Amino acid sequence: MKKIALIACSMIRGSNLCPGDAKCFVALGRKDGEFKRYENQDVSLVGIVDCGGCEGNKNRVVCSMALLNMHLKALNEKVDAIHVSTCIMKYCKRKDDLIEAIRQKAGVEVVEGTHDYIPPSIFGQS
C-alpha cells in the first residue's frame, strides 16, 4: 500500500478556508487530480503538516516533516510520497523555495499538487 503525506497551506487551514481539508480527502478517495497516479493502487494518507506559515521560512516545513516522521516511526509507518497541496501550488508566493526544501530533505517522491477542484469563477456558472 502506498503511504502519502500532505503539506498544506497554514493560512488556508488556519483560517478554515478549506474546512477539514475536504477537497484533498475527496480527491484522494476518488483518485482525481494528482492522486490519479494511484488509480490501480491502494493508498493511505498517513499525515498532514502545514508549510510553516507565510512569515515562516523553509526550515519550518522541514521540521514539520521530521516531526511527522518521528511520530510515524513510533507507529511503524512510513511515507512513500509527499504531495504539496493545491492551495500551495496555486496561491503561495514562496512555493518554489518550499518545494526545493521539501525535495532536498524528503528522500521520497514529491508530487506538486493534489486536486483540480478550483471553480473557474466565483459568481459565474461553473
Care to describe what's here?
There is one protein chain. The protein is of the alpha/beta class and 126 residues long. The protein is built from five helices and four strands. The chain has helices at 10-14, 22-30, 58-74, 86-91, 95-106; strands at residues 2-8, 43-50, 81-84, 109-112. A four-stranded parallel beta sheet has the order 2-1-3-4.
Keywords for this entry:
126 residues; alpha/beta; 4 strands; 39% helix
Could you give the topology of this structure?
Elements: E1 2-8, H1 10-14, H2 22-30, E2 43-50, H3 58-74, E3 81-84, H4 86-91, H5 95-106, E4 109-112
Parallel strand pairs: 1-2, 1-3, 3-4
Helix pairs in contact: 3-5
Radius of gyration: 14 Å
H/E element order: EHHEHEHHE
Query: How are strands sequenced across the largest beta sheet?
Result: 2-1-3-4
Low-confidence stretches: none
Mean pLDDT level: 91
The helix tally amounts to 5
| Ends distance | 36 Å
Summarize the amount of helix as a percent range: 25-40%
Alpha-beta classification? alpha/beta
**Percent of residues in β-strands:** 15-25%
Structural shape: globular
Outline the biggest β-sheet. 4 strands, parallel
Q: What is the tally of beta strands?
A: 4
Quick recap:
This protein is of the alpha/beta class and 126 residues long.
